[in-house]
Amino acid sequence: MTRKYFTQIVIVTQVFLDLATVILSFIIGYYIYHLMYYKWQIGVGVQPFKIYRNLAIGSGVLFLIIFERFGLYSRKLGMLNIEEIKRIFQSLIIGSMILFSLSFLLRPAMIEAQPLTSITEQLDPGDDFNLKERGALLYSRLIMMYSLIVLMVLINLQRSVVNTVLLRRHIEGPGLNRVLIYGAGEVGRQLQRRLFENPRIGMKPIGFIDDDLAKVGTSIEGIPTQKSTSLKVLGSGLDLPELVSAWDAHEVIIALPNASTSRIYEIINTCIQIKVKFSFVPNLFDMLIQQVHLAEIEGIPLLRMKSPRISYIYLTVKRVFDIAFALACLMLSLPAWPFIILAIKIDSEGPVFFSQERIGRDGNHFQIYKFRSMRCDVNSYETSPKDNLDRRVTRVGRWLRKFSIDEIPQFINVLKGDMSIVGPRPEMPFKVENYTPLQKQRLKVRPGITGIWQISSARGSDIHENLDYDFYYTENQSFLLDIVIIMKTIAAAIRGRGL
């Protein structure tokens, strides 16, 4: 199956699944309403199924239109599908506003235009009714509220299942755009990791090409926790035509941001001659490319620096939310603290809490707090453990790190104002001292307990090797994005995917 037809089948299937999910959510909302009514008398009375069946179908069509307008049928969303979740929430908010607005605007006219006798004609014989008002049959807002809450859960669950299925199918290979990465340097390795982390994009890296003959034949590690993402350097630029043919490559991505213009032209000309699709990373990659956007003047493309927008309303809401969330988490977890403290003391010698100097917003120093998960006879400023098999991690520490329980004391840092719930991970001073001007951009915001890097498969590698996650967050900060990250963090902690 070609990638073109595979993509079309996926999109059509997604449309039908979304439609079915919306309709099912409204049906479930209908039955939840009646369960609440019969059990606790919440509601205005029994409602006819036919009316809400039609509402479910109409809402399905409405949400399909909204999903399409928000780009939810594009497979190029990337960044751990966080952008997709954001757009789903935005779509649900817009759809909910439209439905509730229509219910308020049309209800008086519907009641006036449709007498009670014509309403009851829509009912099946034997239907039981307890109408408290003539308008009770005209789209209960309570049913709509239940339905939209169910939809919020089901649509995210359904999309998650689809993404999992696509991931497995893409690992098997159908419909993929097979990609050769020209350049086994830092940029090429970042491309390798990102393409493997976002298989829904439909691009599968199959190997590297590099002009450094010393690299030919070596393997480049991809995602640290997935050996299958390692790729070999298959050859040099001289072998490009043969490699494209031998490996059935559909595209060549030129990842040589520091190469001369003449060298890039040579590679492009070769790609044109052998009729293979190509793209390239511009030579601005090492110069804040994450803060560059494409503009134009009368058709002439320009690259401009983004002007950072700081919403003080958002920052205020974020800080209030941080305090409330941190207090709630500390109060809920407090009963478990004695057991955690006892387990740590029994398991190994040393203090219960671990503290370490970190760098926060604007380069300010602060002490970060955790439950101790490593032995005391190790250098606390060494490289963090890549996995729980690291000998420095204690037995109890493995359990604490697996479910991210060791992070709980950091809510104290949040209350003190050193950290936020969501933000870039705070780094150690000696690493920040070696930051480039580009890397220092991540210090513009308050560091967080969780963030995009923390919930990605790249968290096994060093923070400074994956700064594009932090740049994405700093450039796209919003309360909705924070909520999405928190939800994914909670899901990861429940599944025991902490470190």
What features would you describe in this structure?
With 499 residues, the chain is an alpha/beta fold. The chain has three domains: 3-171, no CATH class; 176-286, 3-Layer(aba) Sandwich (Rossmann fold), CATH 3.40.50.720; 312-494, no CATH class. The protein is 47% helix and 12% strand. The protein has helices at 3-40, 49-69, 82-113, 116-120, 141-172, 186-197, 240-246, 261-273, 312-333, 337-347, 395-402, 410-416, 429-432, 467-475, 479-494; strands at residues 177-182, 203-209, 219-220, 231-235, 251-254, 277-280, 292-297, 300-305, 353-359, 365-371, 420-422, 448-450. Strands 3-4-2-1-5-6 form a six-stranded mixed beta sheet, with helices on both faces. Strands 7-8 form a two-stranded antiparallel sheet. It has a two-stranded antiparallel sheet with strand order 9-10. Helix 13 links the parallel strand 11 and strand 12. The chain is globular and about 80 Å long. The two termini are 39 Å apart. Residues 108-123 and 125-137 have low confidence and may be disordered.
